[in-house]
């Protein structure tokens, strides 16, 4: 029996993890249409890609075409890229929360979003606090299948140059071999591992909740 072809939505398809996820979806025969919501095009030619360009800080304007089986939110920023705290919060809190609301309003049952290890609404560290508040707000919206991924440092080569981040990754690679036992969860995660985990979660039955960094790596390996 042939299953119905699915439609997926990606926010952040031009980023490191989002672009990797897009390639996986294009290679997956279960997906007929992949809708992309972003400020700039991905420059990939495929009749399965449907691009909607505009300001993703104003998702409400896309509501009539925001329909899919699954939504993947891969949008995020950094302190160095977005030093303005108000704008940072609009991106890392506002976009995922508004996306979850759109899922709920349009009857989309699966929402998968990338957060970060250390997310904590009670943290004194602004960036961890924002991630933690985002997680709580997203879970409160109660999309039936909501998965929040909490990767450690994300490895891989970004399109834009981030010198500080590049140096941190190099140092991290040197010392992370010492992360064994309970410390394994602090090992860096490759974008392909995150993308594989997101796709797996979208296509299996699992209780909603948070997926820790070590779980992401295990799921990506098929463990």
Automatic annotation (TrEMBL):
It comes from the Bacteria. Residues 12-130 form the NAD(P)-binding domain. It comes from Maribacter cobaltidurans. This is Nucleoside-diphosphate sugar epimerase. InterPro entries: NAD(P)-bd_dom, NAD(P)-bd_dom_sf.
